[in-house]
Amino acid sequence: MKTIFLSKRKEVHEFRVGQTIFRQGDLAKNVMYIQEGVVKLTVVNEAGKEAVVAILGPGDLLGEACLAGLSICKETATATTPAILFLIEKHEMARLLRADRDFSDQFIDYLLAQKVRIDEDLTDQLLNSSEKRLAHVLLRLAGSGAPGNSQKALPNISQEMLAEMVGTTRSRVNFFMNRF
Fold first, then answer.
1. pTM for the model
2. 106: Cβ–Cβ under 8 A, 6 or more apart, which residues?
3. Nearest alpha carbon to residue 84 among 31, 39, 114, 53
4. How far apart are CA 102 and CA 73, in angstroms?
5. Pairing of strands 11-15, 83-89
6. Cα-Cα-Cα-Cα dihedral sign, residues 146, 30, 43, 18
């Protein structure tokens, strides 16, 4: 998929640490490919409580829900490390999916892999202890099981962010990290 984004990209954007890429409620009009860096997705409920719903890295996509008719962004995306993203407008992405069978197949594979990961996360949240959830998050961040990622370094993520991802407190994450 990277090759298509490199050859067909319309815009390249660079983001600093902490810079917002898009906000919950913004118009959903682009699909973005993360070339470099780490991006945090968060949602805020009506009471103002924020939750981290995903940490994405190189090779991941943002904004693909716009292709399914979503008109506004359901989450906020923030760069947690310096990041380089390739943007393709919604209509151009739709055209590419219709015109390029290989790209379409890769995109479907990506979406299916994301669905499996989300299902695993939900099952994990419902059935496993916070210690096991933390271990799973750390393995995913390290790229465990991903092709070509045998010794990937973990991105610099605070224990507070890990706690939000796991659904526990920072002190519990600290306790588990010391045990690991």
1. 0.73
2. 1, 4
3. 39
4. 27
5. antiparallel
6. positive
Could you tell me how many residues make up the chain?
180
Please write the tens of the pLDDT for every residue from 95-134: 989 999 998 999 999 999 888 888 877 776 666 688 887 8
Tokens 């519990």 correspond to 172
Q: Which two tokens stand for residue 122?
A: 């939900």
21, 39, 110 from 35: Cα distances, Å? 14, 11, 15
CB atoms within 10 A of CB 64: 20
Please name which of 64, 25, 26, 22 lies closest in space to residue 39, comparing C-alpha atoms. 22
Bridge partner residues of 39 (DSSP): 56, 79
- Which residue in the block uniquely carries the two structure tokens 């419902």? 126
